[in-house]
Write a structure and sequence with these properties.
Strand order of the largest sheet of chain A: 2-1-3-4
Largest sheet of chain B: 9 strands, mixed
Mean pLDDT of chain A: 89
Number of strands of chain B: 13
Order of helices and strands of chain B: EEEEEHEHEHEHEEEEHEHH
Number of helices of chain A: 27
Helix content of chain B: 25-40%
Distance between the termini of chain B: 38 Å
Low-confidence stretches of chain B: 260-264
Radius of gyration of chain A: 31 Å
Oligomer: heterodimer
Helix content of chain A: 40-55%
Structural class of chain A: mainly alpha
Strand content of chain A: under 5%
Chain lengths: 662, 291
């Protein structure tokens, strides 16, 4: 019985071994050197908002691997990536084992271990090649639209395929010499060896071919390691960091940003947080952010992947800087790109490696605002916020003008209510949203909820200010509003505006303000609770029969509330609810968030028009939503497209108040 | 270049205001008065800052005649990027444009400013007097109600001025000079809250006039002469016949009269595509010198 093992580096001449070790070592050095250059640039960035604990980082990575993160949503890409990644890891471990066996006193490469490892390594190699095949199919045959083409990618794909193929060939030449029975464990190598023998290769030639293939394989692998940190291939290492360092704050909360008076920012590396620079290098260029971005879909200037890649380019420019002025992200990123973002968060929701895409956009907006580089429309609403405390630029005393006949209970009257109904600027000033406020008042009165309003003491929560990049103004709003809430001893707030809700919930009660505690409900949550408790009975059917629900970004994606509004819609009798192609987490923005409500539209199409068309495709003649901005945007879209007779846009509270039993 | 800008803080006139005719005092109704830099002064400031950015080594100094509580416009100018701001303490018994101009002129005489920029008029008093008065007191050439700045080179500048009926002119003026600008002379830049707060934390130097104002020579302000408000006149309102269709009513309104069918000398009903209609409308307006 022959011994089940093999001679390591059989048939390999000493000079070849020297080439391998010197080459591999220098390859790794080159890769590490390249990465260290990036690392030095990351360190120049300004501090990130929060340090993530080690335990948390490990948990993030384990969770990501176990659940395959958000990547799993694209089955093809996920399987492809799984095969390439794990195939590569197995091959890498296999090579390391061979090295240990050969260069250290450890000896384990015989018997069952040898058989099992031969089998597993061959399986890994096969997975690696199958995965690469899938990549080639997806990139060059199916031509997936969102993929970015680059000679680097073509070259690296070819290189990896060549490494996989030559690896198997080296194995097959070696086995083909003697064809030992136990080598059948090499499920690819053995049949390949048989095939080579069948093709008529003689033993003499086999050793020569083995040597040539071996050296080619070695050189290719060395090259691969040398380039492993080039272009998006650096994601193999950096993505681990971006996943590990994922911030703990809620999705809807923007990170704070203190602009220093001494060094007003201008988009240079020291003005960008180190996490954003690291994130930019973690980008795999997969393009999922861009494929879901409403601004991109509408043909606007913004392309979220381009923003991330331009930041990565900034890191490169900084790394190769030879004196002179610091390169700025604003050299390559235009103002319009930054102003096009609706902060819908679809990009972050999709990014497989947890890059905080739109936070980068907001940070750069903050820098533009500090420089005074804003469009006239943005200036008007920001100045309205500064002087009149609302983005619609109305006088603060006119907040309750719409409700004069309703005689709303005011907190100022000395009444200590259970709930504060926060009407918000849209509910107070925007006619399409005032009807939401009216419906809510009617429902609250009908169900005898003990509530009051703040009246002219209300001011903007600061959501548009913050998202338009006016961080200092937002903090001023937060301070003033928290003072008002404290003065009146407010414990529970209900609002029909998801933006107000998000700001109260995620931005008023965390960080520096974590001491302030109050409960905030979105009206969909209160309504669904009241319906479940039987306090609201719905008996009348609306004229429309088929309803679809549009998820507001700040209710759904940013706060995870998908079901409450649907329960409310479902409780309206006589209607059928249908879902749009993109709903819940994948919902498509109405185009009104992130301050877009007050900005001019750029681009070929309007985001709200795209969404309305999608809603109408379901055959629905009523679009229900739960956000004043969504209502205004979609209603405007229906009028613009001339569809106001075919489809009506209503807030869920309007549906409830119409269907309510009185 | 050495540039001076004169600014004033005014009440936001887009909100309900009450004017007391006897004292000339203007009060804003509501809980908290909202104050702004006078928009035309803001345009003047922008013009000065634009010149500074084009001509290295320039300097922009901003002045306001006001009490300590009305320094808002100066803080704004500081936040916007003025090199120096200075408050000129008013003299108690002399309020109004003449004494304001006198103080400004006293401060600026001998300071060798190449260009003094003012807003053409304020939102509150709208006297449009301060700029011209400064020019007269300092014996400098002046251009009033200037629009955009066309050219600014050593020793002279060229500005646009709008005239009536769609006409305009270019005015060339030798420096030093006083210019008063209209609101639309320059696009305003946003000033972030952070910069405003930072400016508000600074102390603004105050200048006290050391001069014996020749009180007799100053006209009274507001003018002591009382005038009656215009007599209320009964106006006949045109109301189209409710029995007609909407399209016909619109036609009647656009034709500007009760009986479009008897097309009078100046009224006509036109139909056609928008290009044709706008062309005809333009010709009509031009012909009758509306524009």
């Amino acid at each position: 019985m022959e011994e089940i093992t093999r001679q390591i580096n059989w048939n390999v001449l000493p000079w070849m071994e020297v080439v391998l070790y010197v080459g591999a070592f220098s390859g790794l050095i080159v890769a590490a050197w390249r990465l260290s250059k990036r690392y030095r640039v990351w360190k120049l960035g300004r501090p990130a908002d929060r340090e993530v604990s080690l335990g948390r980082s490990v948990a993030n990575i384990v969770g990501w691997i176990a659940g395959r993160g958000k990547m799993a949503r694209d089955h093809y890409a996920a399987s492809m990536h799984f095969l390439i990644l794990w195939g590569f890891i197995v091959l890498f471990i296999g090579t390391t084992l061979v090295f240990l066996e050969h260069q250290t006193p450890l000896h384990f490469f015989y018997g069952t271990f040898y058989l099992v490892s031969s089998f597993v390594i061959d399986l890994g190699g096969a997975a690696f090649l199958v995965g690469l095949g899938m990549a080639v199919y997806r990139r060059y045959v199916r031509k997936s639209a969102r993929l970015k083409s680059s000679p680097w990618i073509d070259a690296m794909l070819a290189l990896m395929i060549a490494i996989g193929v030559t690896g198997f060939l080296v194995e097959a030449w070696r086995i083909a010499v003697n064809l030992p029975q136990f080598e059948k464990a090499s499920i690819i190598g053995y049949p390949l060896a048989l095939a080579l023998r069948a093709a008529g290769f003689q033993a003499q030639r086999l050793t020569l071919f083995h040597r040539v293939t071996w050296i080619i394989h070695a050189i290719l692998s060395i090259t691969f390691f040398g380039f492993a940190t080039v272009y998006f291939f650096r994601h193999t290492l950096v993505s681990l960091l971006s996943v590990a360092l994922r911030p703990e704050r809620p999705a809807g909360a923007l990170r704070p940003y203190e602009i220093s008076s001494e060094n007003p920012p201008s988009g240079t590396v020291p003005d960008i947080s180190w996490k954003d620079l690291l994130d930019a290098d973690a980008c795999t260029t997969c393009g999922r952010c861009t494929s879901v971005c409403p601004a991109t879909a509408a043909g606007k200037a913004l392309d979220p992947r381009a923003i991330v890649l331009k930041l990565s380019d900034l890191v490169s420019r900084q790394a190769t800087l030879a004196g002179g002025t610091l390169p700025s992200a604003l050299d390559t990123i235009s103002d319009q790109e930054l102003w096009d973002c609706t902060t819908c968060g679809a990009c972050v929701y999709e990014c497989p490696v947890d890059i905080e895409v739109f936070d980068k956009i907001i940070d750069l907006r903050r820098q533009l605002v500090d420089m005074g580089r804003v469009s006239p429309a943005a200036r008007a609403s920001l100045e309205g916020l500064q002087t009149r405390q609302n983005p619609w630029d109305y006088h603060p005393d006119q907040r309750l003008t719409w409700s004069e006949s309703l005689r709303l209970p005011r907190v100022a009257d000395g009444h200590k209510p259970e709930w504060i109904y926060w009407i918000g600027c849209a509910g107070a000033f925007e006619p399409a949203a005032q009807s939401i406020s009216r419906s809510m008042i009617e429902i609250l009165r009908q169900t005898k909820v003990d509530f009051a309003v703040l009246g002219s003491e209300e001011r903007c929560t600061g959501d548009p200010a913050r998202r338009l990049g006016e961080e200092a103004l937002f903090q001023q709003f937060r301070k003033k509003n928290l003072e008002t809430l404290r003065r009146h001893g407010v414990r529970k707030i209900v609002t029909h505006c998801p933006h107000c809700m998000n700001t109260f919930k995620n931005e008023y009660q965390s960080g520096d303000c974590s001491s302030s505690k109050f409960e905030v409900l979105h009206h969909s949550q209160l309504l669904s609770r009241l319906i479940a408790e039987g306090k609201i009975r719905l008996s009348r059917s609306p004229a429309e029969r088929v309803v679809t629900f549009h998820d507001p970004c700040y209710l759904g994606r940013h706060n995870g509330e998908y079901d409450a509004p649907r329960r409310v819609v479902d409780s309206v009798p006589g209607i059928e609810r249908v879902e749009m192609k993109r709903s819940r987490g994948q919902s498509f923005c109405c185009g009104g968030g992130g301050g877009q409500m007050w900005l001019e539209s750029s681009g070929r199409q309007r985001v709200e028009g795209l969404r309305l068309a999608e809603a109408m495709q379901t055959g629905a003649n009523l679009v229900a939503t739960a956000c004043p901005f969504c209502k205004v945007m979609l209603e405007t879209a229906s009028v613009t497209a001339g569809h106001q007779d075919q489809v009506r846009v209503r807030d869920i509270s309007e549906l409830v108040s119409e269907a309510m039993e009185r | 270049m050495k540039l001076a800008v004169c600014v004033k803080e005014v009440l936001d006139s887009r909100l309900p205001l009450q004017v007391f005719p006897d004292s000339g005092q203007i009060v804003q109704l509501g809980t908290e008065p909202i104050k702004l830099i006078n928009p035309a002064d803001r345009a003047a400031l922008e013009i000065a800052l634009n010149i500074r950015s084009q001509q290295p080594g320039s300097r922009v100094e901003v002045f306001s005649v006001c009490d300590a509580v009305q320094e808002g416009a100066l803080y704004f100018a500081l936040a916007r990027g003025a090199d120096v701001v200075e408050r000129l303490a008013p003299i108690a018994e002399h309020i109004g444009p003449p004494s304001t101009a006198l103080l400004l002129a006293a401060r600026m005489s001998g300071a060798k400013f190449d260009l003094i920029c003012c807003g053409d008029e304020t939102l509150d008093n709208s006297s449009a007097m301060v700029g011209p008065l400064i020019a007269e007191l300092l014996d400098l050439p002046q251009v009033t109600s200037a629009g955009r700045l066309r050219e600014c080179s050593k020793g002279k500048l060229i500005v646009e001025r709008k005239l009536d009926r769609g006409h305009g002119e270019l005015v060339e003026v030798e420096l030093p000079a006083v210019l008063t600008f209209k609101v639309e002379a320059a696009e305003s830049q946003y000033v972030s809250f952070r910069r405003l707060e930072q400016a508000r934390g600074k102390d603004i130097p105050v200048w006290h006039a050391d001069l014996d104002l020749p009180a007799r020579k100053l006209p009274q302000w507001p003018s002591s002469e009382k005038k009656l408000p215009p007599r209320a006149r009964v106006k006949k309102k045109f109301m189209p016949d409710a029995s007609l269709s909407a399209a016909e009513r619109v036609k009647m309104i656009m034709a500007g009269g009760m009986q479009p069918q008897q097309s009078g000398q100046n009224s006509a009903v036109l139909e056609g595509n928008p290009d044709y209609l706008s062309e005809q409308l333009f010709r009509f307006l031009k012909h009758h010198e509306f524009i």
